[in-house]
């Protein structure tokens, strides 16, 4: 690992990445304290696994019928290279169903963890991941979904400091469905990095979420969806809210191969500036090599509607509360896509807590 080097900001794919913050996070020596791990779980009816600095803590884990197994996992992505090696694999049998929670605790320094999820034909998986602590938490997640398999995934970063990076490599088979929602609502620099390959006909993928930044924090997502088979359907819905002197960056790409006819790809990237000293970067991208597709993208950055603020305040709502209500409505269409009600409510509560502190 000592021989590995991080990318530089001179590379196009990394020009918005907060690599200096990542480097600083690698050297954090102060251990994270005051984390009540029991309260960090949403409460799904299924197994729970706690990882401390990338290592499974059996005392804070509850194993289900589909236990995590040891596995060797590799990637050639710059972030994935750091996590290459011995990790864990979850195999869900054909027709099976599992609800699982993963808690990632960073206790200082750097920690890397590779994970592979394999969903057999017609299985159903609900996965919730929570990041807390401080340091550099780097996660490589590989997903393989067989025919008609379904995975609903929700990831939230609530870390007190440091840096969290996730690299996802997803393969969606025939008629399979991958739906993932991400929330950055902590005080850690963040990069959500993903490659989703739609390898089967009639595959479905939905990815999005909300980046909430304040002070001088920088967060970003970098997602590429590649349609390699016909009749695929993908949606990306991202929202960014930036306050103070922070920066939120959204880069979302859709690539449609020549033989991936009848593809439907959609992107929606929107940014909200709570102060004009903040920055939101948006980069939607379409690469279409087929001639019978329906693809669209939209990207906008703006401020809160003054007329809406005036209306709420005229009804007796305090200014800070009015701003919080409008901001919450702005990110709602990204978080409300979470299918499980308990998970959706937990993520909404995290967003509300961030808004109360920021506004």
Describe this structure in words.
This protein has 359 residues and is of the alpha/beta class. The protein is built from five helices and 17 strands. It has a 17-stranded mixed beta sheet that branches. β1 and β2 form a beta hairpin. α3 (306-314) crosses α4 (319-335) and α4 runs antiparallel to α5 (341-358). The longest helix is centred in the last third of the chain and has 18 residues, at 341-358.
Task: Outline the secondary-structure elements.
Layout (H helix, E strand, L loop, with lengths): L18 H8 L21 E5 L2 E2 L12 E5 L4 H6 L1 E8 L4 E23 L4 E22 L4 E8 L5 E10 L4 E8 L4 E10 L5 E10 L4 E10 L5 E10 L4 E10 L7 E10 L5 E10 L5 E9 L3 H9 L4 H17 L5 H18 L1
Parallel strand pairs: 1-5, 4-5, 5-6, 6-7, 6-8, 7-9, 8-10, 9-11, 10-12, 11-13, 12-14, 13-15, 14-16, 15-17
Antiparallel strand pairs: 1-2, 3-4
Helix pairs in contact: 3-4, 4-5
Number of strands: 17
**Estimated share of beta-strand residues:** over 45%
Q: Count of helical segments?
A: 5
Order of helices and strands: HEEEHEEEEEEEEEEEEEEHHH
Q: Can you give the helix content as a percent range?
A: 10-25%
Indicate the overall shape: globular
Low-pLDDT regions: none
Overview in brief:
The chain has 359 residues and is α/β, with parallel strands linked by helices. Helix content is 16%, strand content 47%. It has a 17-stranded mixed β-sheet that branches.
């Amino acid at each position: 690992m000592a021989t590995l080097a991080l990318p530089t900001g001179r590379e196009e794919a990394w020009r918005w990445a907060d690599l200096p913050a990542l480097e600083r996070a690698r050297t954090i020596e102060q251990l994270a304290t005051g984390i009540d791990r029991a309260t960090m779980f949403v409460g799904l009816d299924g197994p729970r696994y706690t990882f401390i600095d990338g290592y499974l803590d059996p005392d804070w884990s509850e194993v289900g019928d589909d236990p995590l197994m040891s596995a060797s996992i590799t990637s050639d992505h710059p972030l994935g290279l750091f996590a290459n090696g011995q990790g864990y694999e979850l195999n869900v049998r054909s027709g099976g169903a599992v609800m699982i929670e993963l808690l990632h605790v960073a206790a200082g320094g750097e920690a890397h963890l590779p994970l592979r999820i394999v969903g057999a034909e017609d299985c159903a998986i609900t996965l919730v991941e929570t990041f807390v602590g401080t340091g550099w938490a780097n996660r490589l997640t590989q997903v393989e979904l067989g025919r008609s398999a379904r995975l609903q995934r929700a990831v939230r970063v609530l870390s007190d400091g440091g840096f969290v990076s996730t690299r996802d490599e997803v393969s969606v088979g025939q008629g399979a469905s991958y739906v993932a929602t991400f929330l950055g609502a902590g005080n850690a620099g963040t990069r959500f990095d993903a490659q989703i390959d739609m390898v089967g006909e009639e595959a479905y993928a939905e990815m999005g979420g909300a980046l909430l930044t304040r002070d001088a924090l920088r967060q970003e997502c970098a997602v590429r969806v590649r349609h390699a088979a016909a009749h695929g359907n993908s949606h990306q819905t991202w929202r960014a809210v930036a306050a103070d002197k922070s920066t939120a960056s959204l880069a979302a790409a859709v690539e449609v191969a020549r033989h991936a006819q009848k593809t439907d790809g959609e992107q929606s990237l929107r940014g909200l500036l709570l102060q004009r000293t903040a920055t939101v970067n948006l980069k939607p991208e379409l690469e279409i090599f087929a001639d019978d597709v329906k693809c669209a993208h939209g990207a906008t950055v703006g401020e809160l509607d003054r007329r809406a603020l005036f209306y709420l305040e005229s009804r007796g709502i305090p200014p800070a509360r009015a701003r919080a209500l409008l901001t919450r409505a702005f990110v709602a269409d990204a978080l409300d896509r979470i299918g499980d009600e308990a998970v959706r409510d937990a993520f909404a509560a995290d967003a509300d807590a961030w808004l109360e502190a920021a506004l």
